[in-house]
Specification:
two-stranded antiparallel sheet, Alpha-Beta Plaits, globular, single chain, 4-stranded antiparallel beta sheet
């Protein structure tokens, strides 16, 4: 049987990604394909796909009510955003398929994990894009995503500045080509 290389996790091993915090995420397109529009001067001009990315970002709090979306930017082939998971954020019930219930009993809810939020965002965007492109099942995003746990106010404001100036520095970005 062929052995595949072990994927190295970029997550902090002891960190609880369901706890209330701010998280900075970056998600790249598959093969770094430019899908979302173009930068002219220092401004990003979204195409239809870029507007769908933006719409899906705004939809996150509808699915995860105690999650607030913060500053973000859609770039030609990637996305940067800050997610604020607030206290009490929950998603689907724990063990929904294997909990025996009696009439009207609701299983306990599990805490929202950052990975669930990103997966929801990526899945809904991919579904819409593949319908428009008539490419069912085609990958749109790279398999994983980058995340950074925001540690303090200084870190937060540094990330906000990075997001704001990202289009102006596009020609120097490693994702440019």
């Amino acid at each position: 049987m062929e052995q595949f290389p072990q994927r190295r996790s970029i997550r902090l091993p002891e960190f609880d990604y369901s706890k209330a915090n701010y998280y900075f995420i970056t998600i790249r397109t598959d093969q770094k394909t430019h899908l979302f529009g173009q930068i002219m001067g220092s401004k990003m001009y979204l195409n239809d796909f870029g507007r769908i990315v933006q719409d899906q970002w705004f939809n996150i709090p509808k699915r995860f009510p105690n999650v607030k979306i913060e500053k973000f930017v859609v770039m030609p082939n990637h996305f940067h955003g800050i997610i604020h998971v607030r206290r009490g954020a929950v998603s689907a019930p724990v063990g929904i398929n294997n909990v025996q219930r009696t009439g009207g009993e609701t299983p306990p809810l599990r805490p929202t994990l950052l990975g669930n939020i990103v997966a929801y965002f990526k899945y809904n965007f991919t579904k819409q894009i593949n319908i428009l492109r008539q490419t069912p099942g085609a990958p749109v995003w790279q398999r994983n995503y980058y995340e950074h746990v925001v540690r303090d106010d200084e870190d937060y404001y540094r990330i906000v500045e990075y997001i704001q100036i990202n289009p102006a520095k596009w020609q120097f970005d490693r994702n440019y080509k």
